[in-house]
C-alpha cells in the first residue's frame, strides 16, 4: 500500500508540475497572454459556427448515402444565408414543373 501511495504522490506531483509549467510560461512571457486568448476565442467561435450550421441548416449533410440529392429538399422560400437584407426568396415555377416532370 505504501508503494501505491508513493506512486500516486509522484503522479500528482508530475501533473502539478506540468500545470505549473504552463502557468510559469504565462508569467514569464506576458506577451503570450493576448495570443492565447485570441486563439482560444477563435477556436471556440469556429466550433460554435460549425455546430450551428450543422444542426440548423438543412443543406449541410453528413451522410450522403441516405439522401443522394439533398439539394432537392432545400426550401427556396427560406433564406440559406446567415443574414439577408430586403431579399425575397420565391420558387421558380418553370423549375418546379421540370422537377415534377422528371420524378
Mind explaining what this structure looks like?
This protein has 103 residues and is mainly alpha-helical. It folds into two domains: 1-56; 61-103, no CATH class. It has three helices and no strands. 0% of the residues are buried. The model has no long low-confidence stretch (mean pLDDT 75). It holds the Pfam family B12D.
- Major sheet attributes: none
Radius of gyration (CA) equals 27 Å
- Could you tell me the mean pLDDT? 75
Shape designation: elongated
Strand content: under 5%
Class by helix and strand content? Answer: mainly alpha
Strands, count: 0
Q: What's the end-to-end separation, in Å?
A: 74 Å
Quaternary status: single chain
Secondary-structure blueprint of this entry?
Elements: H1 2-28, H2 32-56, H3 93-102
Amino acid at each position: 500500500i505504501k508503494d501505491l501511495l508513493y506512486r500516486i504522490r509522484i503522479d500528482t506531483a508530475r501533473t502539478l508540475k506540468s500545470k505549473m509549467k504552463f502557468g510559469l510560461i504565462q508569467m514569464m512571457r506576458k506577451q503570450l497572454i493576448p495570443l492565447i486568448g485570441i486563439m482560444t476565442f477563435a477556436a471556440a467561435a469556429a466550433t460554435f459556427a460549425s455546430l450551428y450550421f450543422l444542426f440548423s441548416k438543412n443543406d449541410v449533410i453528413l451522410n450522403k448515402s441516405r439522401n443522394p440529392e439533398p439539394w432537392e429538399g432545400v426550401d427556396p422560400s427560406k433564406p440559406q444565408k446567415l443574414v439577408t437584407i430586403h431579399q425575397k426568396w420565391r420558387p421558380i415555377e418553370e423549375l418546379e414543373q421540370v422537377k415534377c416532370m422528371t420524378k
